Amino acid sequence: MIFFDDVSKIYTPTQAALRNVTLRILPKEFLSIVGASGAGKTTLLKLLIAEERPSEGKIFLDGVEVTSLGYRDLPQVRRRIGTVFQDYKLLSGKTAYENVAFAMEAAGAKDSEIRDSVPEVLDLVGLVEKANNFPHELSGGEKQRVAIARALVNRPEVIMADEPTGNLDPVTSWEIIKLLVKINEMGTTVILATHNKEIVDDLGRRVVTLEGGKIIMDEEKGKYVI
């Protein structure tokens, strides 16, 4: 379980990204975090992987206080959380296979493990035939699928997707969302930060709405009401 305990991120007395956020995310849950630009969605995700530290409050992942971990201990937590970004963040000089393999190499995986796991995860996202293509040879949707495969390959318990459809057309966006739903149904917790009302409304899953850094709504089967 993920638990944000009265978390605030304050930059100046007049500028706060999050204020007094208390939030529980259950294992295997699919949660959408919505809100206008600047509402605090990305900050919340960054705090979970300790890319930023809260000004106040604590964050826990299965009882481990993420906010108290030192630099050396953070990789252990971050390997449990895969991250997908709006702009893909692929390495341009590496093929789809190599981009995914690189995530395993960075985690210290053996060559034999990489040879077994990378084709499996590329098959899951429907890109086996594109394994040897470089990012510039892929469509936006294919790039995002590679990014999802990279996030999945170390078998994390949680996938965080920060506006993963922001650069995609509506049809491709739905393909990516369906893939995230499939991953969730396989047992992985999915946290989706988005401002796409149509996607959130059609998902019919739990929705947490942020406004001005505060949670103003938390519904089990919510809609995007802003």
From TrEMBL:
<dbReference type="GO" id="GO:0051301">
    <property type="term" value="P:cell division"/>
</dbReference>
<dbReference type="InterPro" id="IPR003593">
    <property type="entry name" value="AAA+_ATPase"/>
</dbReference>
<comment type="function">
    <text>Part of the ABC transporter FtsEX involved in cellular division.</text>
</comment>
<comment type="similarity">
    <text>Belongs to the ABC transporter superfamily.</text>
</comment>
<keyword id="KW-0132">Cell division</keyword>
<protein>
    <recommendedName>
        <fullName>Cell division ATP-binding protein FtsE</fullName>
    </recommendedName>
</protein>
<feature type="domain" description="ABC transporter">
    <location>
        <begin position="2"/>
        <end position="226"/>
    </location>
</feature>
<dbReference type="InterPro" id="IPR003439">
    <property type="entry name" value="ABC_transporter-like_ATP-bd"/>
</dbReference>
<dbReference type="Pfam" id="PF00005">
    <property type="entry name" value="ABC_tran"/>
</dbReference>
<dbReference type="GO" id="GO:0005886">
    <property type="term" value="C:plasma membrane"/>
</dbReference>
<dbReference type="GO" id="GO:0016887">
    <property type="term" value="F:ATP hydrolysis activity"/>
</dbReference>
<dbReference type="InterPro" id="IPR005286">
    <property type="entry name" value="Cell_div_FtsE"/>
</dbReference>
<dbReference type="GO" id="GO:0022857">
    <property type="term" value="F:transmembrane transporter activity"/>
</dbReference>
<dbReference type="InterPro" id="IPR017871">
    <property type="entry name" value="ABC_transporter-like_CS"/>
</dbReference>
<keyword id="KW-0547">Nucleotide-binding</keyword>
<dbReference type="InterPro" id="IPR015854">
    <property type="entry name" value="ABC_transpr_LolD-like"/>
</dbReference>
<keyword id="KW-0067">ATP-binding</keyword>
<keyword id="KW-0131">Cell cycle</keyword>
<dbReference type="InterPro" id="IPR027417">
    <property type="entry name" value="P-loop_NTPase"/>
</dbReference>
<dbReference type="GO" id="GO:0005524">
    <property type="term" value="F:ATP binding"/>
</dbReference>
<keyword id="KW-1003">Cell membrane</keyword>
<keyword id="KW-0472">Membrane</keyword>
<comment type="subunit">
    <text>Homodimer. Forms a membrane-associated complex with FtsX.</text>
</comment>
